[in-house]
Amino acid sequence: MVFQTGLDLLRLQGDVLWAGAELAAKIVSEPFLGLAARKGDGKSPVMTLPGFTGPEFSMQPLNNFLNANGYIAQSWGLGTNRGIRNMEHMENLSALLGTRVRQIADEHGRPVSLIGQSLGGDFARELARRFPKEVDRVITLGSPAHFGEAPNTVNAMVARVMALYTGRAVDDLLEEVSDLDFDISEPPAGVPLVSIYSLYDGVAPAATTKIPARFLRDTKGVPRENIEIVCSHCGMGVNPLVLLAVADRLAEDKANWVPFDPLSYGFGPVKYASRWFYPSRLSPRTA
Questions:
Q1: How far apart are CA 237 and CA 63, in angstroms?
Q2: H helices of 199-282, where?
């Protein structure tokens, strides 16, 4: 246990350092991103939800990128994401966020797209489950939503911090979740879901962050898609490759959904270099 905690501390530190490099890459590549990214119509609202311990401004780079590319993006309005203490706390948070989603949808006259990083993505999925008419689609960034798919749900150091913040061990919370009368790991019905994940995620195993095959097979005609990207966990909200994928999926027509194709970006050697950064996307139809 001590060895695993020490190893996970190193993994977390490496992930944070990588995230810093990804932020620098975003700043340097800003002109290209502005030219390459698919654009919104200037009327589509987006709400972003930060990850655990993430302050409100942690989603600002993503919001700025989306606002510059034809979307009306704003953060969730609840400050720092301090996690979940118990299911009653989850109900209260869902009620607050549900009110905000409805207000945004009413203000703009159309459903809201939700983008959640890590634990914020779990909240986004739950909001879509409860308010499907007000939610247009959900995009999760490294969100450990599929409990039981891997022996370790999150980095051991992150689990310790969560216990300090919430007063509850992660395993206790998962046990409480397992007692619910529905499977919280199941994607929200009727709402398109995109999971962006990384095999190099230093916080959550890919097995918990990508949509399991059983949920991809039975979609009832609702788009569900996994997109693997070589990136860190903490830097998903600033990584240029992730930003391109997010903008691409926001612009995709729900009625005529075509899987994300990174080969449509770039030219010559640059185009084929995308195979290294989007490993599972060797063809446009890879799920």
A1: 9
A2: 206-209, 213-217, 240-251, 268-277
Q: Which domain holds residue 8?
A: 2-262
Neighbours of 133 (CB within 10 A): 10
Rg (CA), the chain: 18
Contact yes or no for 182/212 (Cβ under 8 A) = no
The number of domains in the chain is 1
At 240, the amino acid letter reads: P
Q: Whose CA is closest to 29, among 243, 196, 263?
A: 243
CA proximity to 203, closest of 170, 165, 251: 170
pLDDT tens-digit series, residues 178-208:
666 667 788 999 999 999 999 999 999 999 9
With H, G, I as helix, E, B as strand and everything else as coil, classify residue 45.
Answer: strand
Q: What does the mean pLDDT of the chain come to? A: 87
What CATH number has the domain bearing residue 246? 3.40.50.1820
pLDDT higher than 80, residue 125:
yes
Residue 203's pLDDT is what? 93
